[in-house]
């Protein structure tokens, strides 16, 4: 009666009793088959003995060995690999070390144990809780992949084998990433690598980035230097930059720190002047009251000029009498004469402008007004 099967009414489509009879018959057949496979291996060894100590051949593909084994395989109707494997298995299991009731498959798998004594002892000691060796248990013993994985690591190994094709791996990965419980168990560093790989496509990265930037907890963990780089990239568009800058300058602390930068302050002042100029030009070109305003501006300019002359005369009237009985030094007189010359030239310029409307300044007058 098989030890692995608990008693039940049926196994598959047969009764338990009938199943036990089938297993007993097949074990006899497997034992016969195993003896046949060992016989094939023994004869193959006779034709081509193993060439290296310990049964390890450096040149199993040597022409003389392969040619002989290939010819033997064809003559008996088997494949070359079957004959080669049988020969290698027989070389690992001397006749006196072969165990009846253990399949040739198990012998072949356990033959991978390099140490002879360890190998011979292992086949006599089935795994704990097992009455006999199975191919899967033998593969576990030598660290190979099993047909029916049980432990998490075995299942992982099986999955890796199944997803060697990149298209299959891509499909499986997509399915797994839709399972929150699975994603939650992925290590943080592995999650980072996954995200990096998934966002190599610019369109995908662009779609994902806004979601990240809407999560305050995520943004808070970004290094300041990286935040600056992100803002610079996002504000390359002038319209976006203008909107963002306007919002930032409404924050007093931000505005104060920005204006501490000389270049930034200069640019802001320049922008204000330029905006004022553009607004004035637009007004003069489009406003219906612009001509009236221009006339008023001219009147104001006339009044300013008259006021300046009056102020000069009044100031001179106050200052000149104070010079009575006072003698100025040579340097002081020179300075006063220079300034009087500038005033006289300025008065001539005013008269010319009033009479002719020409306000251009020639080179000599310009140098005089500048004190050169």
Q: Can you walk me through this structure?
A:
This protein has 372 residues and is mainly alpha-helical. 69% of the residues lie in helices and 1% in strands. It has helices at 16-47, 63-76, 80-92, 104-110, 116-122, 135-142, 152-162, 166-177, 180-184, 188-198, 202-213, 216-220, 224-234, 238-249, 252-259, 262-286, 290-319, 330-356, 363-369; strands at 10-11, 14-15. The protein has a two-stranded antiparallel sheet with strand order 1-2. Helix 1 (16-47) packs across helix 3 and helix 4 runs parallel beside helix 6.
What features would you highlight for this structure?
19 helices, two-stranded antiparallel ribbon, 372 residues, 2 strands, 1% strand, 5 domains, mainly alpha
């Amino acid at each position: 009666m098989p030890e692995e099967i608990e008693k039940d009414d049926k196994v598959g489509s047969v009764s338990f009793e009938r199943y036990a009879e089938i297993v007993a018959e097949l074990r006899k057949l497997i034992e016969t088959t195993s003896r046949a496979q060992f016989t094939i291996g023994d004869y193959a060894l006779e034709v081509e003995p193993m060439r290296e100590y310990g049964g390890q051949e450096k040149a199993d593909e040597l022409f003389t060995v392969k040619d002989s084994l290939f010819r033997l395989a064809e003559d008996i109707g088997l494949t070359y690999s079957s004959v080669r494997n049988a020969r290698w298995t027989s070389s690992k299991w001397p006749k006196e070390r072969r165990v009846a009731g253990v399949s040739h498959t198990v012998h072949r798998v356990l033959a991978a144990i390099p140490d002879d004594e360890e190998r011979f002892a292992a086949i006599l000691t089935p795994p704990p809780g097992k009455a006999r060796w199975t191919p899967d248990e033998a593969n576990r013993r030598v660290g190979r992949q099993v047909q029916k994985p049980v432990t998490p690591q075995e299942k992982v190994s099986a999955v890796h084998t199944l997803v060697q094709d990149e298209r299959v791996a891509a499909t499986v990965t997509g399915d797994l990433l839709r399972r929150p419980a699975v994603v939650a168990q992925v290590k943080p560093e592995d999650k980072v690598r996954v995200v990096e790989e998934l966002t190599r496509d610019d369109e995908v990265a662009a779609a994902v980035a806004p979601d990240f930037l809407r999560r305050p907890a995520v943004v808070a963990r970004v290094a300041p230097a990286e935040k600056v780089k992100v803002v610079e990239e996002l504000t390359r568009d002038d319209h976006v930059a203008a909107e963002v800058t306007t919002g930032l300058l409404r924050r007093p602390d931000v505005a104060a720190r920005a204006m501490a930068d000389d270049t930034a302050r200069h640019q802001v002042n320049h922008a204000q002047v330029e905006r004022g100029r553009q607004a004035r030009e637009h007004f003069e070109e489009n406003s219906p009251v612009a001509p009236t305003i221009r006339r008023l501006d001219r009147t104001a300019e006339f009044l300013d000029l008259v006021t300046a002359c009056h102020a000069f005369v009044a100031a001179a009237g106050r200052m000149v009498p104070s010079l009575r009985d006072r003698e100025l030094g040579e340097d002081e007189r020179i300075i006063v004469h220079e300034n009087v010359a500038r005033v006289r030239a300025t008065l001539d310029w005013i008269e010319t402008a009033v009479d002719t409307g020409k306000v251009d300044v020639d080179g000599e007058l310009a140098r005089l007004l500048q004190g050169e």
